Amino acid sequence: MTSKIIIKSLVLFFFCILKMDAQEILTPEEAIKIALENNFEIKIAANNLTIDQTNVAIGNAGMLPSLTASVVDNNSIQNSSQTLQSGGSNQLDNAKNNSLTYGVGLNWTIFDGFMMFAKLDQLKELQKLGEAQLKLTIITKVSDVNSTYFYLVQQQQQLAALDTTIVISNQRLALAQNRFTIGKASKLEVLNAQVDLNTDKVALLRQKELYQNTKILLNQILARDTKTDFIVLEELTLDEQLNLSELSALAAKQNPQLESQIINKRVAELQLKQIKAGRYPVISVNTAYNIGETQSSLGFVTQSNSKGFSYGFRASLNLFDGLAQNRNEKIAKIQIENSTLAIEQQNISLNSLLATSYQTYLTNLQLIELEETNEAIAKQNLDITLDKFRIGTITTLEFRTAQLNYVNAKVRYSDAQFQAKLSEIALKELAGNINF
């Protein structure tokens, strides 16, 4: 009976292998590539960056002149009367008056206290801020992909562990039935074996549910059809050579959140420059070419035409604005101070997160070694217990305990690897060093 169960288990195992071969094997690199191409948040951040890049233009900074075309047509119908100096008078009902003026005009601000140059520099800094935001979005999404992917690897490993325990539970049930048949065991032993087997099947079903739901979540992050089927790699790969000082140095240069705070300070400084420009005069030049036509039914001139250039300049200087200039400068300086404080706060927070995450990373590496040893011991203990159970020298309770210890050891070992991988991902995310 035992041999039949083993044969059935092997057939099922090879069937699963063939089914897995028919599925798409998704690697972490492929998952990241799909996310970079499809993820909606990345696309939105990329579009926002395109907007920032488009805004970097000298015309947007106010450095170019404005050229306008205009047409003004005025018409009126009036009852008019005029008294002349000679004492006579003119009178006309429904007198028509028409005036048509059209042309082009140019206006150019040639000096505004260097505000336009500060504005252009600010637009360039906002573009850098958009680049930092896109980088942050990409790193965050790549981190999410990696975390979810390796969570699937862990779930797949736990499925394998539960498959193993069901094979063992089937063997135990077969042995119990054989012993009951020959009168060496009671019916209670068979029933207990059946209950434990059913318990293991329930755990396997729950694990399969979690595995499938996690696959749906990963497909969602990849922004593709959530029904897309695939399998992941069987093993976790860990980078065990991370160094805290190197990570801290990278974070100071590459962390997108810290980079954003530094850019925000620069933007605030350029905003102050623009406000200070209000203390200088604003000078603009203008020119126009206009054509005018006027018609009047009553008066000394019944029709006139004109065309030609006009030109001039305008200069203005703010002498008093209710002390608004001083207030605005004071507020801008406070905003710069806040930006400096935000940089310091981000530095402290970043270093704190790096230190705690690195300690967690080291602890998880040690746990991997311990849990690997525990799994080997639990496997050896299960093999010995199974041999003793076959010859009837131990109770079913002792056998079940050894079986559960082995399964739990495999699960803990898998979880220790996964937690270490999460620590690695978190550290690289903080350092802005995730490979994408």
TrEMBL record:
Entry-linked InterPro entries: OMP_efflux, TolC-like
Pfam families, A to Z: OEP (PF02321)
The protein, known as: Agglutination protein
Key word Cytoplasm present: no
Main location group: membrane
Similarity-based family: Belongs to the outer membrane factor (OMF) (TC 1.B.17) family.
The species this protein was found in: Flavobacterium frigoris (strain PS1)
Cited PANTHER family: OUTER MEMBRANE PROTEIN TOLC
Origin: domain of life: Bacteria
GO MF entry, a single one: porin activity
Keyword terms: Cell outer membrane, Membrane, Transmembrane, Transmembrane beta strand, Transport
